[in-house]
Amino acid sequence: MKTVLVTGGAGYIGSHTVQELIKEGVSVVVLDNLTTGHRDAIRSKYFYEGDIADTALVEHIIKEHKIQSLIHFAAKSLVSESLAKPELYFYENTVKSFVFLKAAIKGGIKEVVFSSTAAVYGNPKCIPITEESMLAPINPYGASKRMIEEYLEWMGKAHGIGWVALRYFNAAGASLEASMGEDHDPESHLIPLVLKTSLGLQEKLSIFGTDYATPDGTCIRDYVHVIDLANAHILALHAIEQGLPSNIFNVGTGKGASVMKIINESERITGRTITIESKERRVGDPNILVADNTAIKAALGWEPRYSDLETILSSAWRWHSSHPNGYRRLPHF
Ligand code: UDP
Question: Whose CA is nearest to atom 16 of ligand 1?
Fold first, then answer.
């Protein structure tokens, strides 16, 4: 892989993937419209501020940098926003990806790694979740991503493109040197909100549901470190280059942690107690989501290296405590 185009390379998972690619000596070009990404998270020498649906720009970038490999992250990813504005999600994620991938393939892209999500499974009937589990998204975000997987299946066959879609479970953690981490606006994810509560940036942490059918009554999720996720993309690109048949893989650790476990472990790591309050269940939250990761381990040799809770939470804590405003700089007086 000579040069890789990374869309959404200014976002949370995209920026960590760019950093890992650069560590491997790969040349990276980032395309990001900075609507949710952060300029300060961009680690590549080449950056284009623009939209994935700007086909002239996409064709120019691919030609200019002689690119054959693509990792496509750029997307909107707030589940609650997708429920309120499905039209926005199907347009920004699905329609724009259709336009983008057509232009990218026309421009000469031969290998694609696509950022998908466990949200394509909805409320799974069996745990752990295999790739063969029924696809029944319960929000427009998951549905918008599933449609792109299907588009890739047909486009790959028709145009001889090798592709891998990665269905992430719960991305978490931050770069180990604490220069990059999670920074969403608004923030809705559990670990950043727990740590922001520890920092006094919010008064209390709401626990959405304490009466689930789990040992402690709170939801269980499969948290995977963002560097392990980043490495899954790189392994997938290498494997496609070596002729791996196009495929879809779950990316998760196969182990679950409850909301209470995350809170207790965070309190231990930060040394700070937080105030919690029990709230109603959040609409559309399944009680348990844990990946079966047999397929990605067998096909790509992927192994989570940083996804123990200690590393996830301590790296996230270093990031949030050193960047309480995320990438936003403090105002100058
Ligand atoms: N959660 C919570 N309080 C919060 C944010 C999240 O109790 O302030 C719970 C949420 O209901 C879910 C789990 O934490 O059970 C993980 O939520 P997150 O939004 O981080 O990821 P999701 O699994 O929804 O993608």
Answer: 190
- Secondary structure element (H or E) that encloses residue 170, with its range: strand 170-172
Ligand 1 mean position, distance from CA 207 (Å): 8
H or E stretch covering 133? none
Cite the active site residues. 141
CA pair distance 118, 55, nearest whole angstrom: 29
206 alpha carbon – ligand 1 mean position (Å): 10
**Rounded average pLDDT over 144-170:** 98
Residue 91 makes CB contacts below 8 A (sequence gap 6+) with none
What is the total residue count of the chain? 333
Atom 18, ligand 1: residue with shortest CA distance? 189
Give residue ranges with CB within 6 A of ligand 1: 170, 188-190, 193, 205-208, 219, 221, 259, 282, 285
**Alpha-helical regions (H) of 271-308:** 294-300
pLDDT in tens, 280-332: 999 888 899 999 999 999 999 999 999 999 999 999 999 999 999 999 865 44
Tell how far the Cα of 100 is from the centroid of ligand 1, in angstroms.
31
Say how many Å lie between the CA of residue 209 and the centre of ligand 1: 10
Distance between alpha carbon 77 and the CA centroid of its chain, in Å?
9
CA distance 222 to 168: 9
Euclidean distance between CA atoms 254 and 223, whole angstroms: 9
DSSP state of 111: E
Nearest CA to ligand 1 atom 6: 190
Judged against a pLDDT cut of 70, whether residue 279 lies above it is answered with yes
Helix intervals (H) in 184-293: 190-198, 226-241, 259-270
pTM, 2 dp? 0.97
User: Count of alpha carbons within 13 Å of 55, Cβ hemisphere only?
Assistant: 13
Measure the CA–CA gap between 51 and 93, rounded to whole angstroms: 12
